[in-house]
UniProtKB/TrEMBL annotation:
Keyword Metal-binding tagged: no
NCBIfam families: PRK07041.1 (NF005449)
Protein name in UniProt: SDR family oxidoreductase
Annotated keywords: Oxidoreductase
The family this protein is said to belong to: Belongs to the short-chain dehydrogenases/reductases (SDR) family.
Record's signal peptide: none
Organism: Labrys neptuniae
SUPFAM superfamilies per record: NAD(P)-binding Rossmann-fold domains
Length: 243
Protein backbone atom coordinates (compact mmCIF):
# COMPACT_ATOMS: atom_id res chain seq x y z
CA UNK A 1 0.00 0.00 0.00
CA UNK A 2 1.32 3.53 -0.84
CA UNK A 3 2.37 5.76 2.07
CA UNK A 4 -0.62 8.10 1.87
CA UNK A 5 -3.42 5.74 0.85
CA UNK A 6 -6.69 6.79 2.51
CA UNK A 7 -5.35 10.23 3.50
CA UNK A 8 -6.89 13.52 2.40
CA UNK A 9 -4.46 16.36 1.69
CA UNK A 10 -5.51 19.94 0.91
CA UNK A 11 -2.97 21.94 -1.11
CA UNK A 12 -3.69 25.67 -1.24
CA UNK A 13 -1.65 26.90 -4.21
CA UNK A 14 -1.91 23.43 -5.77
CA UNK A 15 -2.74 24.79 -9.23
CA UNK A 16 0.80 25.94 -10.01
CA UNK A 17 4.52 25.65 -9.28
CA UNK A 18 5.60 24.18 -5.95
CA UNK A 19 2.04 23.35 -4.85
CA UNK A 20 1.33 21.50 -8.08
CA UNK A 21 4.53 19.50 -7.48
CA UNK A 22 3.38 18.64 -3.95
CA UNK A 23 -0.04 17.60 -5.24
CA UNK A 24 1.57 15.35 -7.87
CA UNK A 25 3.91 13.69 -5.35
CA UNK A 26 1.06 13.14 -2.85
CA UNK A 27 -1.14 11.59 -5.57
CA UNK A 28 1.70 9.29 -6.64
CA UNK A 29 1.90 8.15 -3.03
CA UNK A 30 -1.79 7.26 -2.85
CA UNK A 31 -3.36 10.37 -1.26
CA UNK A 32 -6.68 11.94 -2.16
CA UNK A 33 -5.81 15.55 -2.94
CA UNK A 34 -7.82 18.77 -3.02
CA UNK A 35 -6.07 21.56 -4.93
CA UNK A 36 -7.12 25.13 -4.16
CA UNK A 37 -6.54 28.44 -5.93
CA UNK A 38 -8.35 31.53 -7.17
CA UNK A 39 -8.30 30.91 -10.91
CA UNK A 40 -10.69 28.23 -12.24
CA UNK A 41 -8.64 28.07 -15.46
CA UNK A 42 -5.38 27.31 -13.64
CA UNK A 43 -7.15 24.67 -11.52
CA UNK A 44 -8.63 23.02 -14.62
CA UNK A 45 -5.22 22.93 -16.35
CA UNK A 46 -3.62 21.53 -13.19
CA UNK A 47 -6.25 18.78 -12.84
CA UNK A 48 -5.66 17.84 -16.47
CA UNK A 49 -1.90 17.67 -16.05
CA UNK A 50 -2.25 15.61 -12.85
CA UNK A 51 -4.50 13.15 -14.70
CA UNK A 52 -5.51 11.40 -11.47
CA UNK A 53 -9.26 10.91 -11.97
CA UNK A 54 -11.34 10.97 -8.80
CA UNK A 55 -8.21 11.02 -6.62
CA UNK A 56 -7.94 14.77 -7.24
CA UNK A 57 -10.55 17.48 -6.82
CA UNK A 58 -10.20 21.24 -7.22
CA UNK A 59 -11.86 24.03 -5.27
CA UNK A 60 -11.90 27.70 -6.23
CA UNK A 61 -11.14 29.74 -3.10
CA UNK A 62 -9.20 32.88 -2.23
CA UNK A 63 -7.36 32.53 1.04
CA UNK A 64 -7.78 36.23 1.74
CA UNK A 65 -11.57 35.72 1.82
CA UNK A 66 -12.81 34.27 5.07
CA UNK A 67 -16.12 33.10 3.58
CA UNK A 68 -14.21 31.08 0.91
CA UNK A 69 -12.15 29.32 3.56
CA UNK A 70 -15.17 28.59 5.78
CA UNK A 71 -16.88 26.95 2.78
CA UNK A 72 -13.71 25.07 1.73
CA UNK A 73 -13.19 23.40 5.10
CA UNK A 74 -16.90 22.76 5.78
CA UNK A 75 -17.17 20.91 2.46
CA UNK A 76 -13.86 19.06 2.82
CA UNK A 77 -14.75 17.46 6.17
CA UNK A 78 -12.07 15.75 8.28
CA UNK A 79 -8.68 15.76 6.59
CA UNK A 80 -5.06 14.72 7.26
CA UNK A 81 -2.74 17.47 6.05
CA UNK A 82 -2.94 21.09 4.95
CA UNK A 83 -0.20 22.42 2.69
CA UNK A 84 -0.05 26.07 1.69
CA UNK A 85 2.27 27.24 -1.05
CA UNK A 86 -0.03 30.11 -2.02
CA UNK A 87 1.68 33.40 -2.66
CA UNK A 88 2.10 36.22 -5.14
CA UNK A 89 5.27 37.96 -6.37
CA UNK A 90 6.74 40.07 -3.55
CA UNK A 91 7.28 43.83 -3.63
CA UNK A 92 10.83 44.54 -4.79
CA UNK A 93 11.27 48.31 -4.90
CA UNK A 94 14.00 50.04 -2.87
CA UNK A 95 12.62 51.07 0.53
CA UNK A 96 12.39 54.79 -0.41
CA UNK A 97 10.08 53.91 -3.30
CA UNK A 98 7.93 51.34 -1.47
CA UNK A 99 4.44 51.04 -2.87
CA UNK A 100 2.44 50.62 0.34
CA UNK A 101 -0.67 49.37 -1.43
CA UNK A 102 1.38 46.53 -2.92
CA UNK A 103 2.95 45.75 0.45
CA UNK A 104 -0.50 45.52 2.04
CA UNK A 105 -1.76 43.22 -0.74
CA UNK A 106 1.32 41.00 -0.35
CA UNK A 107 1.05 40.77 3.45
CA UNK A 108 -2.69 40.22 3.25
CA UNK A 109 -2.20 37.35 0.83
CA UNK A 110 0.83 35.59 2.26
CA UNK A 111 0.72 36.18 6.03
CA UNK A 112 -2.87 37.10 6.91
CA UNK A 113 -3.99 34.43 4.44
CA UNK A 114 -1.93 31.83 6.34
CA UNK A 115 -3.44 32.93 9.66
CA UNK A 116 -6.91 32.65 8.18
CA UNK A 117 -6.13 29.21 6.74
CA UNK A 118 -4.97 27.98 10.14
CA UNK A 119 -8.07 29.44 11.78
CA UNK A 120 -10.48 27.62 9.47
CA UNK A 121 -8.48 24.39 9.10
CA UNK A 122 -7.93 23.71 12.80
CA UNK A 123 -11.41 22.36 13.57
CA UNK A 124 -11.36 19.54 11.01
CA UNK A 125 -7.63 18.67 10.85
CA UNK A 126 -7.18 15.14 12.28
CA UNK A 127 -5.31 14.80 15.59
CA UNK A 128 -2.39 13.01 13.90
CA UNK A 129 -2.38 15.47 10.99
CA UNK A 130 -0.26 18.49 10.15
CA UNK A 131 -0.16 21.93 8.59
CA UNK A 132 2.78 22.96 6.39
CA UNK A 133 3.35 26.54 5.26
CA UNK A 134 5.97 27.88 2.84
CA UNK A 135 8.58 30.54 3.56
CA UNK A 136 11.72 30.87 1.41
CA UNK A 137 15.37 31.73 0.88
CA UNK A 138 14.59 35.47 0.77
CA UNK A 139 14.57 35.53 4.58
CA UNK A 140 18.18 34.24 4.64
CA UNK A 141 19.55 35.90 1.50
CA UNK A 142 17.35 38.95 0.89
CA UNK A 143 17.54 40.51 -2.54
CA UNK A 144 19.16 43.97 -2.29
CA UNK A 145 17.66 46.46 -2.75
CA UNK A 146 13.98 45.74 -2.16
CA UNK A 147 14.16 42.60 -0.03
CA UNK A 148 13.09 43.95 3.36
CA UNK A 149 9.37 43.21 3.13
CA UNK A 150 9.66 39.72 1.65
CA UNK A 151 12.43 38.88 4.13
CA UNK A 152 10.32 40.01 7.10
CA UNK A 153 7.25 38.09 5.98
CA UNK A 154 9.11 34.89 5.03
CA UNK A 155 11.05 35.07 8.30
CA UNK A 156 7.87 35.35 10.34
CA UNK A 157 6.71 31.89 9.29
CA UNK A 158 9.23 30.08 11.48
CA UNK A 159 7.82 31.79 14.57
CA UNK A 160 4.24 31.31 13.38
CA UNK A 161 4.86 27.55 13.17
CA UNK A 162 6.53 27.33 16.59
CA UNK A 163 3.64 29.04 18.36
CA UNK A 164 0.95 27.17 16.43
CA UNK A 165 2.69 23.83 17.00
CA UNK A 166 2.24 24.40 20.75
CA UNK A 167 -1.30 25.68 20.48
CA UNK A 168 -2.60 22.97 18.13
CA UNK A 169 -0.66 19.98 19.58
CA UNK A 170 -0.77 17.06 19.06
CA UNK A 171 -1.42 18.26 15.53
CA UNK A 172 1.89 19.36 13.99
CA UNK A 173 2.81 22.61 12.24
CA UNK A 174 5.95 23.00 10.11
CA UNK A 175 7.53 25.16 7.42
CA UNK A 176 9.32 24.40 4.16
CA UNK A 177 11.82 27.03 3.05
CA UNK A 178 12.74 26.50 -0.61
CA UNK A 179 15.56 28.13 -2.52
CA UNK A 180 14.96 29.19 -6.13
CA UNK A 181 12.48 26.87 -7.85
CA UNK A 182 11.64 27.12 -11.54
CA UNK A 183 7.90 27.97 -11.46
CA UNK A 184 5.49 30.34 -13.25
CA UNK A 185 6.07 32.89 -10.46
CA UNK A 186 9.52 33.59 -11.93
CA UNK A 187 8.04 34.25 -15.37
CA UNK A 188 5.87 36.88 -13.71
CA UNK A 189 8.77 38.45 -11.78
CA UNK A 190 11.59 38.51 -14.36
CA UNK A 191 9.97 37.40 -17.64
CA UNK A 192 12.43 36.68 -20.43
CA UNK A 193 15.40 37.45 -18.19
CA UNK A 194 14.67 34.21 -16.30
CA UNK A 195 17.19 31.99 -18.08
CA UNK A 196 20.01 34.48 -17.42
CA UNK A 197 19.06 34.79 -13.74
CA UNK A 198 18.91 31.02 -13.38
CA UNK A 199 22.22 30.38 -15.17
CA UNK A 200 23.98 32.89 -12.89
CA UNK A 201 22.54 31.37 -9.71
CA UNK A 202 23.06 27.77 -10.84
CA UNK A 203 26.75 28.52 -11.31
CA UNK A 204 27.04 29.67 -7.67
CA UNK A 205 24.89 26.99 -6.02
CA UNK A 206 26.51 23.91 -4.49
CA UNK A 207 23.72 21.88 -6.17
CA UNK A 208 24.82 23.33 -9.54
CA UNK A 209 21.29 23.89 -10.84
CA UNK A 210 17.93 25.50 -10.05
CA UNK A 211 15.33 23.26 -8.42
CA UNK A 212 12.18 21.96 -10.05
CA UNK A 213 8.95 21.56 -8.04
CA UNK A 214 9.69 17.81 -7.98
CA UNK A 215 12.97 18.52 -6.14
CA UNK A 216 11.23 20.27 -3.23
CA UNK A 217 8.02 18.20 -2.95
CA UNK A 218 9.74 15.45 -0.88
CA UNK A 219 10.34 17.97 1.95
CA UNK A 220 6.57 18.46 2.26
CA UNK A 221 5.93 14.70 2.17
CA UNK A 222 8.59 14.15 4.83
CA UNK A 223 6.94 16.68 7.14
CA UNK A 224 3.54 15.02 6.67
CA UNK A 225 4.99 11.63 7.58
CA UNK A 226 7.41 12.48 10.36
CA UNK A 227 5.20 12.13 13.45
CA UNK A 228 7.95 13.56 15.68
CA UNK A 229 8.68 16.76 13.76
CA UNK A 230 6.81 19.90 14.75
CA UNK A 231 7.51 23.63 14.98
CA UNK A 232 10.38 23.05 12.52
CA UNK A 233 11.62 24.72 9.34
CA UNK A 234 13.17 22.54 6.64
CA UNK A 235 15.49 24.32 4.22
CA UNK A 236 15.61 22.73 0.79
CA UNK A 237 17.67 25.13 -1.28
CA UNK A 238 20.56 23.31 -2.98
CA UNK A 239 22.96 24.96 -0.53
CA UNK A 240 21.78 28.52 -1.24
CA UNK A 241 21.96 29.37 2.50
CA UNK A 242 25.71 28.64 2.36
CA UNK A 243 26.68 31.09 -0.35
N1 LIG B 1 9.52 29.70 -6.84
C1 LIG B 1 10.50 30.01 -6.01
O1 LIG B 1 11.67 30.15 -6.40
C2 LIG B 1 10.20 30.19 -4.55
C3 LIG B 1 11.29 30.25 -3.66
C4 LIG B 1 11.03 30.42 -2.30
C5 LIG B 1 9.73 30.56 -1.86
N2 LIG B 1 8.71 30.53 -2.75
C6 LIG B 1 7.35 30.72 -2.24
O2 LIG B 1 6.60 29.57 -2.53
C7 LIG B 1 5.24 29.93 -2.77
C8 LIG B 1 4.79 29.26 -4.07
O3 LIG B 1 5.54 29.80 -5.12
P1 LIG B 1 5.45 29.24 -6.61
O4 LIG B 1 6.73 29.61 -7.23
O5 LIG B 1 4.97 27.84 -6.60
O6 LIG B 1 4.32 30.23 -7.20
P2 LIG B 1 3.23 30.03 -8.35
O7 LIG B 1 3.68 29.04 -9.36
O8 LIG B 1 2.87 31.40 -8.79
O9 LIG B 1 1.99 29.41 -7.54
C9 LIG B 1 1.29 30.16 -6.59
C10 LIG B 1 -0.01 29.42 -6.29
O10 LIG B 1 -0.69 30.12 -5.24
C11 LIG B 1 -2.05 30.35 -5.64
N3 LIG B 1 -2.51 31.53 -4.92
C12 LIG B 1 -1.96 32.77 -4.88
N4 LIG B 1 -2.68 33.59 -4.11
C13 LIG B 1 -3.73 32.85 -3.63
C14 LIG B 1 -4.83 33.14 -2.80
N5 LIG B 1 -5.02 34.37 -2.28
N6 LIG B 1 -5.70 32.15 -2.52
C15 LIG B 1 -5.55 30.92 -3.04
N7 LIG B 1 -4.51 30.58 -3.83
C16 LIG B 1 -3.62 31.54 -4.14
C17 LIG B 1 -1.95 30.51 -7.16
O11 LIG B 1 -3.17 30.29 -7.84
P3 LIG B 1 -4.13 31.54 -8.23
O12 LIG B 1 -3.25 32.64 -8.75
O13 LIG B 1 -5.08 31.00 -9.23
O14 LIG B 1 -4.81 31.92 -6.96
C18 LIG B 1 -0.97 29.37 -7.46
O15 LIG B 1 -1.63 28.12 -7.45
C19 LIG B 1 5.19 31.46 -2.81
O16 LIG B 1 4.66 31.94 -1.60
C20 LIG B 1 6.64 31.86 -2.95
O17 LIG B 1 6.90 33.09 -2.32
C21 LIG B 1 8.91 30.34 -4.07
Amino acid sequence: MAAFTGQKIIVVGGSSGIGLGVARAALENGADVVIVGRSPDKLRAAEQSLDAGLQVRSVVADMTEEADLARLFQNAGAFDHLVSTAGTPPPGDPIERTDMAMVRRFVDNKLIGAVMLAKHAAATLRRDGSMIFTSGINKDRPPIPGGAVVSAIAGSFGFFARALALELAPRRVNIVSPGWVDTPMWDEIVGEAKSGFFAGMAGRLPAGRIATPADVAPAYLYLMQSAFTTGETIHIDGGHCLI
